[in-house]
Amino acid sequence: DGFSLLSGLTDRRAADPFAVVFLSARGETADKVRGLRLGADDYLTKPFDAQELVARVDAVLRRRDAALHASPMTRLPGGRAIDEEVQRRLDRRVPFALTYVDLDNLKAYNDTYGYAKADGVVLQTAGILREAVATFGGEGSFLGHVGGDDFVLLSSPERAKPLCAEIISAFDRVIPLYYDREDRARGYIEAADRFGTRRRFSILSVSMATVLAAPARFREHAALARVAAELKDRAKRIQGSVHLVDDGSAAAEASA
Q1: CA distance 106 to 3
Q2: What is the pTM of this model?
Q3: How far apart are CA 133 and CA 213, in angstroms?
Q4: Taking the mean position of all CA atoms in its chain, how far away is CA 168?
Q5: Nearest to residue 108, comparing CAs of 233, 199, 184, 207?
Q6: Which of 12-16, 205-209, 220-224 comes out lowest in average pLDDT?
Q7: pLDDT tens digits, 169-198
Q8: Which of 17, 143, 199, 222 gets the highest tally of CB atoms within 10 A of its CB?
Q9: Within 10 Å of residue 4's Cβ, how many Cβ atoms?
Q10: Contact 204, 109 (CB under 8 A)
């Protein structure tokens, strides 16, 4: 039966994920619970409505697709989901703001405190971003995790500055608590850089680069991402947490 079949496919499912929907005449609560505990994504009983069945299968596939393309660490939408969302907005030709978020000095922190605490910093950052987006992002805002310590925010153009200001404020208030008291009071740690030279690294900060995507300015996500990455590199050369904005004019505006 379906229970035995699903149970026998457990090992295969771990290597090659697939979705499962039970459609069964066995409608007792115990049967439904058994199927769901075995790993079924949904359970329908006969007689059934064809439209409902199709809608439930579609919902299962959407959830599965979102899970497969989510960041395994933060469960936020990952690279492919970000690319699709940005391109969808570009195709609609409605202005929006794309903000690239990156942490400064995370490698030195990882080398000093270990990967477990460094992962904690990334998760804490994701939490700060989630809360800020929920409070200040407005309708249609989007948060994705590119990977590592890189995140992407999408919002309306007028929401970008207050959103990023809140993120910087929360980050600079919370993240120093991830340091030992002595390092926090000193304001830096000592670690080897990428060339093996030992030097001082300031307390973790966040670099944010916002590019305003006007309808006539970008048609492809790749072009928009390239401008955002270049602006983010400029932000990382500035000490401390900073937010740069490229509105399409000759110069980017900085706000610390």
Answers
A1: 47
A2: 0.75
A3: 19
A4: 17
A5: 199
A6: 12-16
A7: 999 999 999 999 999 999 999 998 888 889
A8: 143
A9: 9
A10: yes
